[in-house]
Amino acid sequence: xxxxxxxxxxxxxxxxxxxxxxxxxxxxxxxxxxxxxxxxxxxxxxxxxxxxxxxxxxxxxxxxxxxxxxxxxxxxxxxxxxxxxxxxxxxxxxxxxxxxxxxxxxxxxxxxxxxxxxxxxxxxxxxxxxxxxxxxxxxxxxxxxxxxxxxxxxxxxxxxxxxxxxxxxxxxxxxxxxxxxxxxxxxxxxxxxxxxxxxxxxxxxxxxxxxxxxxxxxxxxxxxxxxxxxxxxxxxxxxxxxxxxxxxxxxxxxxxxxxxxxxxxxxxxxxxxxxxxxxxxxxxxxxxxxxxxxxxxxxxxxxxxxxxxxxxxxxxxxxxxxxxxxxxxxxxxxxxxxxxxxxxxxxxxxxxxxxxxxxxxxxxxxxxxxxxxxxxxxxxxxxxxxxxxxxxxxxxxxxxxxxxxxxxxxxxxxxxxxxxxxxxxxxxxxxxxxxxxxxxxxxxxxxxxxxxxxxxxxxxxxxxxxxxxxxx
Length: 472
Ligand code: SAH
What we know:
With 472 residues, the protein is α/β, with parallel strands linked by helices. It contains 17 helices and 19 strands.
C-alpha cells in the first residue's frame, strides 16, 4: 500500500484550489460536500466559479496562485490543465507547508482523491493507486446501486439510538435489528415520511424485535421488465435482494431470477398469455398465504405490472387479507420492442397517440375498437397478438385498414435472441405462420423498423411537412 487511506478533519480549515476551468470545477463538486473553507485562485475563472463565489460557497481570488497562498491550508489542488503551471503552483504550495495534489499526476502528488460513495456520515473511499480507474468506477457504481440513498440519514439518526438498542442481547439479535433498520425500515420510512419518521420507526422496530414478534408480511408487485436484467429498476433489484419469497411469471427471464436472495423461495406461477398453469385464484392465495406468515413476497411480473397482468385482482386479494402491498413499475414490452427496432412509440407528424391493446382476453381473441385502429396513422402495441394474428388482420381489414400498413412483430424484445419481423397488415398472418416463434411476441402495428422506413409507402407520412394541414 503506497497510499494510506485516512479521513481528514477539514471542518473550518482551508482547502485551496488553483485553476479556473473544468478540472477545477470537477474537484470543487466533491470538495463542496465538505465543511472546509474553500479558496479558488484563477486569473480567468469560468462563469460557474464566479457563480459559486457569488453564492458564498467559495472564496474566489481572481489572479494566479502566488507565494503564501497556501499558508495554513490543509490541502492544495493544482488543477490548471497546464503541466508547467501546476508544477509552479505545487512548488510554491509545498514551500508553504501544504499537502499538494496535482490533478492527474499521481507521481508528483502528496495525496490522491479517492472515488467516493457518499452516504454522509457513511463515506466509502475507493482507491486503486492509479492502477485501474475503471475498476474504481465500477466498484463505485456497484455500491451506489446497492446502498439505499437513505443510508446516511438513517445512520445519523441510528447513532443516537445505539444506547437504546443495547436492550437487545449482543450478537445476532442486535445485528438483525440494525440490518432490519438500515435495509428495510429506514429506506421505507424515509421514502414515505422523510427523516422525521425515523425516530418513531426505530422505537417501533426495537419493540418488535424485543417482543420477537414475527415480522409483518408484505407483497410488492414488481415489474421485471422485458427480459434484459439491466432493464430492471434499482428498486426491483433491491427488493429481489431482500425477498423471502419470489412468485414469478414464466416470462421472467432466468438472468433476473438469479438476482433473488440465495435463501429465497422461488415459485413459478407459470402464467403466460395463454392457458395459465396456475389459476389466478391460486396465485392470489399463494401470495396471501406467504404474506400472512410474515414473509416479504415479491410478486414478479414480466414487463410492467400494470399492463395486462391482472394487477387489480392481486391487489384486491391482498387488501381483503389486510396485507401491505406496493407497486413497482417496470419497462413494458412495447418500450423494449420499439427500442429494438430503433423507433419511437410516438412521433410528431406520425402518431400523437399510442394504443396499448391485447390480442387475447379471458374469453379468447379480444374485440377492440377496430374502426379506430384501422384509421391511417394509428400506432398500436398489440400484446399477446401473435396467435391471433389472422383474427386481428381480418378485423382490421374489414374496418378499412390499408393492407400496406406496416406491422413489426418483435420476439424476445431486449433479450440476446431478440428478432424483429417486418411485414404489412395484408401479409401479417401469412408471415407469422411461416415463422417459428417460441418466445413472447409483441406486434407493433403502424411501425416498421427504422431501417425500413425509407421504403415506406403512404399513408404513413414520415415528415411533419406532409401533414402540415392537420397541425395548422
Ligand atoms: N406486463 C407485461 C405484458 C404481459 S402480457 C408488459 O408490460 O410487458 C404478455 C405479453 O407481453 C406477451 O404475450 C407479449 O406480447 C408481450 N411481451 C412480454 N415480454 C416480451 C418481450 N420480451 N418481447 C416481446 N413481447 C413481450
